[in-house]
Amino acid sequence: MYTQLEDEFGDVVAKARRGQEIAVAALADRVGLTAGDITKIEDYELGPAADAIERLAQVLGLHPSKLQASAAQAFFPRDPAGRSVAGAQVEMMVLGSGFLMNGYIVGCAATGRAAIIDPGFDADKILQRLAASGLTVEQILLTHGHQDHISALAEIGRATNAPARIHSGDLALTGSLADRIAGDLAEGDVVSIGELRFEVRSTPGHTAGGISLVHEEMAFVGDALFAGSLGGTRSVGNYRMQHQAVAEKLLSLDANVALFPGHGPATTVGEERENNPFFL
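^ thats the sequence. predicted structure below, dont judge the formating
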């Protein structure tokens, strides 16, 4: 399981800069550093002084003290594998080699029915964990259409005969796997996994059709949010869209709600409100 964040200080700075379409040279000029300094910060080769971090926060619209804490590596979630939820069985699987992502088996303890969320890689590993869990998969749910979240879809679909669903806005991203998609995941839909109920909330920005699956005690958020960070974007419009969606549809939840992201450790709403530099 994880012992470090998906995005440390350099990634936070880079994501805020790229998402707001600020060139390296322009950021350097505004904060009084060199372009080489900014590149080194983003490449984890330079830890700037506290006053430079303060200026970076001001220019990038980040929370100053939270960004200072990010630079000091002061935050790590209390339960990186996610806290337990009564009535639910959650298998958090770190999939891939080198480039890692999180896939999930989410089951109802009362009925034994389950869904697989984001079968990104390692179909054999997913199926082994499924067999060990004793759960029966009835559906495959995709938080978005990037290949690192769907690459094992065909194998898992064939092995389980479970239909897959994705938001229509991301269907084109699935490419040759589009014929494996049987249904939509639209804003406001309610997905039942046995006796568990999840509301589909549209959380776009990282992709046009990104969604989160929200239960009263947990949420599966794909790449909308990481512990201490935000999903990556490359335009001001998408950056603002992602930021607003996370603020309004995820961080407005109860502080104890567990957040299961597409990469890195699990976190909670309360921890993100307190520690995420993207939110003031």
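DSSP finds nine helices and 14 strands in the chain.
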